[in-house]
Design a protein that fits this description.
Elements lengths: L1 H12 L12 H19 L3 E9 L2 E9 L2 E9 L9 H4 L1 H16 L7 E10 L9 E5 L2 H10 L2
Parallel strand pairs: 3-4
Antiparallel strand pairs: 1-2, 2-3, 4-5
């Protein structure tokens, strides 16, 4: 009973986003993807949503969540299934700098000791055949993985 009560309360706090509908503006599509990302972290990963579209340090954080004892900064990319390079925007060094600068600004407002942090990218891909269930792929700790690849072994 507790689980179903918790699920009902959670659905009131973070309702399932509306079904996908083609022909939306880029902004509306991005907002839709961010709504699904928040829903995914809250309902599927049981994370606490701390902020959405947080601005600071010259950048923006799409989502800031607490997942167990980690603070997770999330970049959301709503993409077309035929996109040949879904991570191109995240690999752009200027965007990475803005993402990091915003995360550092967010961290500066927290008391010490600060939590461990992670940078995730959530790819949200609408499926016209299943407008109520987009494909969601979570790439965890992407900035650390990229830095290791650049630095080499």
């Amino acid at each position: 009973m507790f689980e179903s009560l918790r699920d009902r309360a959670a659905e009131l706090l973070h309702p399932r986003p509306e079904p996908w509908s083609g022909g939306w503006t880029k902004k509306r599509t991005g907002d839709w993807g961010e709504s699904w990302a928040a829903w995914h972290y809250f309902h599927r990963r049981r994370a606490a949503i701390l902020a959405r579209n947080w601005h600071g340090g010259g950048g923006e954080l799409d989502l800031v969540v607490r997942e167990e004892w980690e603070l997770v900064f999330v970049e959301v990319k709503t993409r077309n299934a035929s996109d040949p390079e879904p991570l191109a925007a995240v690999r752009d060094s200027k965007r990475r700098r803005h993402f990091r600068a915003a995360a550092e600004a967010y961290l500066r407002q927290l008391p010490r000791p600060r939590p461990t942090v992670r940078f995730d990218v959530l790819l949200v891909t609408p499926d016209p055949a299943k407008p109520r269930e987009p494909q969601i792929d979570c790439l965890t700790n992407v900035l650390a993985a990229e830095e290791e690849a650049v630095a080499g072994p």
